[in-house]
Design goal:
The chain is 7% helix and 59% strand. The strands form two sheets. The protein has a 14-stranded antiparallel β-barrel. Strands 8-9 form a two-stranded antiparallel ribbon. The chain starts with a helix and ends with a strand.
Length: 308
C-alpha cells in the first residue's frame, strides 16, 4: 500500500512539474513593469544611462521543486547605432528541469509624433536540461537515462515600443517567435511562442505632487494556455523611494518596496499565492546600478561622468 502511495504521489508530482514547464515557458516576475527588456527587446536603451540589473526570484516557498530564477541584465543607449543594445543571462530551475539562456538585443530608436518609437530584435541561445536522478524512480526506462541530458535551442524575440517620457508607454512583442526545438533521449521539447501587450501611464495628484504614480498593465498570450493578466501600481516619492502593489490573475497579489541611493536601486517584492497550490508566497529581490552618461554638446558621442 505504501509503495502504491509513493508511486501515485510521484506521478502527480511529475505531471505538475511537466505541466508547469509547459505552461510557464517564460518566467513571470512581480517586477514586470521594471524589467520590460526581458520580454520586449525594443525597450533596450530607452534610458539616458547604462542600466545594470540583477534579479532573484524564489517562487512558492515550501513547495518541493518550485521555480527559482536568477538573472543579470544590462542595456544602454548607443548613439552611433541610432538606438540601444542589451544583454541578458538568465537561469531558471523547476524541479528536475533547468534552463540557462543568453540573449543579445538591439533596438532601433527614432523620434516619432510626440515621443520615441523603437523596433527591437533579440537573438539568443537557451540550454534546456533534465536531471533524471531527481526523480529517484526504479524500473522506468523513460526516467532512467543518463543522470543529466541537455540540448541547445536557438531563440528569436521581436518587439515594438512607443513612449512619451514621463507620460505613457505602450509595447507589443513576441518572444520565442521561432518556437525552437531540441530532441533528447527522453523525447522532444519545443519553446512556445508568447505574445506580450504592455503599457503604462504616469500621473500625479494635485494634493500630493511629490508622489509620481506609475500604473502598468500587461497581457501575455501563449497558445494552449489562458491569457495571463498582470496589473500594477507604484507610487514614487521625490525620486527617493517607492512602494506598490501588483495583481496577476488567478496567480498572486504582490507587494513591492524600493529605494534609490545615488546610482543604486534596491527593491523587494513578496507575492501572496492565490492558486490552489498549498505553498508559501514568492520572494523577489532586484538590485540595480546606473552608470551615468551624458551627451557632449556639439558632438554625438557619450561620455561617462565617472571618468570626466
Amino acid at each position: 500500500m505504501v509503495k502504491w502511495f509513493k508511486i501515485i504521489t510521484f506521478s502527480i508530482g511529475f505531471i505538475i512539474l511537466v505541466e508547469e514547464v509547459k505552461a510557464q515557458q517564460e518566467q513571470s516576475f512581480t517586477h514586470f513593469m521594471l524589467q520590460q527588456t526581458l520580454f520586449n527587446p525594443a525597450v533596450n536603451g530607452n534610458q539616458p544611462n547604462i542600466q545594470l540589473n540583477g534579479l532573484m526570484r524564489q517562487q512558492w516557498v515550501g513547495l518541493s521543486g518550485a521555480p527559482e530564477t536568477f538573472l543579470v541584465n544590462i542595456h544602454a543607449p548607443i548613439s552611433f547605432l541610432k538606438g540601444g543594445v542589451g544583454g541578458t543571462i538568465i537561469n531558471d530551475q523547476i524541479g528536475a528541469f533547468k534552463s540557462t539562456g543568453l540573449k543579445l538585443a538591439y533596438a532601433y530608436r527614432k523620434d516619432f509624433w510626440q515621443g520615441e518609437l523603437s523596433l527591437g530584435l533579440s537573438l539568443g541561445l537557451i540550454n534546456k536540461a533534465i536531471n533524471y536522478s531527481y526523480f529517484n524512480v526504479q524500473n522506468d526506462p523513460l526516467l532512467q537515462g543518463p543522470d543529466d541530458e541537455s540540448g541547445m535551442i536557438f531563440n528569436i524575440d521581436l518587439g515594438v515600443f512607443y513612449e512619451e517620457k514621463g507620460h505613457y508607454y505602450i509595447g507589443l512583442s513576441s518572444t520565442q517567435i521561432n518556437q525552437g526545438k531540441m530532441i533528447i533521449e527522453g523525447g522532444a521539447t519545443s519553446l512556445k511562442r508568447n505574445v506580450y501587450l504592455h503599457g503604462g501611464y504616469f500621473f500625479a495628484l494635485r494634493q500630493i505632487p511629490h508622489i509620481i504614480f506609475h500604473s502598468s498593465a500587461m497581457a501575455v498570450y501563449t497558445a494552449g494556455a489562458p491569457i495571463q493578466i498582470n496589473l500594477g501600481m507604484i507610487g514614487e516619492y521625490n525620486k527617493k523611494f517607492w512602494g506598490g502593489v501588483t495583481y496577476r490573475h488567478q496567480s498572486g497579489i504582490g507587494l513591492l518596496a524600493g529605494i534609490y541611493y545615488k546610482q543604486f536601486t534596491a527593491s523587494y517584492a513578496y507575492e501572496i499565492n492565490t492558486t490552489s497550490l498549498r505553498s508559501g508566497g514568492s520572494h523577489e529581490l532586484m538590485l540595480g546600478y546606473r552608470f551615468l552618461i551624458e551627451v557632449v554638446k556639439g558632438k554625438k558621442n557619450y561620455k561617462n561622468t565617472r571618468y570626466l
